Amino acid sequence: MEEDGENRKDHVLERLNKRNKDRQNYLDVKLEQRSKETVQNEGVDYFAQSFTQQAFDIEQRLNELNSGDAPPAPSDLTQRFTAITMQIQELQRYLTASTMFLSDFKIKSCQNILNTLTASNDEARQRLMPKKKFGFSGKKTVAIKQKPQVTKDKVDSNITKTPEKPSSNFSWTLENRKNEHIVLKSSQVNGQDITISNVNHCLVELQGHPGSVQVSHATHCTLLCGPISRSFFAENLDQCTLSIACQQLRLHSSQSIRIYLHVTCRAIIEDCQAIEIGEYNYDYPELEADYLLSGLNKSQNNYTDVADFNWLSPDVPSPNWSLLKDHPDPNWNALRRDFVSNNNNNEHKQQQGVINTVKDPASII
């Protein structure tokens, strides 16, 4: 009997010890979770204060330039705009480095602030330091025209400089093109803000380092672009292929897009479907030099980090985009050759009154 009593006593003590140990483990886990949440909240609060203060400082510096007082000397203006641009870029890097603990809504809000500051800076620079007027001419490699005498060596007169407006951020525009292979060299794109709109079944190559590129309404097109110093923005694209290197990428209202991407910040998509993303692979003789001149960090590529503003679930991947896997790299030389050959054949048939459909350049990849 005494042994049974001792056994029961030991059993009760063992259960109590186990219960106390489990309770202590539970409290330790809860304490650790609370500590992590506190650190994260402190990080978010610190980021919000720091980001807001830096954005306010940039806005104040822009307001000083726009105050209407006597403008500073050109050399002083150059230094001040350079300092503001570097400050905006530093703030962009700060946002990118903080995305791991920020919500998508917060990232979107901060990115909108940065975009507004960048646009204000560009507008003020163009207004206070207008560029000398000069024309651009692009050599059109292949073009389908109604008149037989138009050859592929004709200077492309449709590439024109955008009329100067106080609010314009772009130097020139390429628009309303169909079934053309357009190659623009460094002398036409370096440091420029490029707009491309309303293009269909075109192969466009920008062999240089643009300041920024904006594309609107493109269908069945391929765009190959050298390193972009700042941002690439595109909207309303359908069944296109892009090879882009840039600091920021934003894609809106587009579908069935394949992007070979180098981006130093977090790429952003919104209202998009069937987006495939792989690593940047465009190549041309001056590419390495353009990387240096653009200021892009070639060793930093965040092409796998994409924020979908229509998909806010942190635990489930967005169904609107995916990484290219087990897919061979495109042969741009073969694409270029086939596109030129198809266009030449169709131009010849069109001159003979035969209607034929140009092969989609994106489908060759």
TrEMBL record:
InterPro entries: C-CAP_CF_C-like (IPR017901), CAP/MinC_C (IPR016098), CARP_motif (IPR006599), TBCC (IPR027684), TBCC_N (IPR031925), TBCC_N_sf (IPR038397), Tubulin-bd_cofactor_C_dom (IPR012945). Residues 163-311 form the C-CAP/cofactor C-like domain. It is found in: Cytoplasm. SMART domains: CARP. Keywords: Acetylation, Chaperone, Cytoplasm. Coiled coil: none annotated. One of its GO terms (molecular function) is tubulin binding. It comes from Drosophila kikkawai. This is Tubulin-specific chaperone C. Gene3D superfamilies: 2.160.20.70, Tubulin Binding Cofactor C, N-terminal domain (1.20.58.1250). Belongs to the TBCC family. It holds the Pfam family TBCC_N. PANTHER family: TUBULIN FOLDING COFACTOR C, TUBULIN-SPECIFIC CHAPERONE C. GO terms for cellular component: cytoplasm. Supercomplex made of cofactors A to E. Cofactors A and D function by capturing and stabilizing tubulin in a quasi-native conformation. Cofactor E binds to the cofactor D-tubulin complex; interaction with cofactor C then causes the release of tubulin polypeptides that are committed to the native state. The keyword Ribonucleoprotein does not apply.
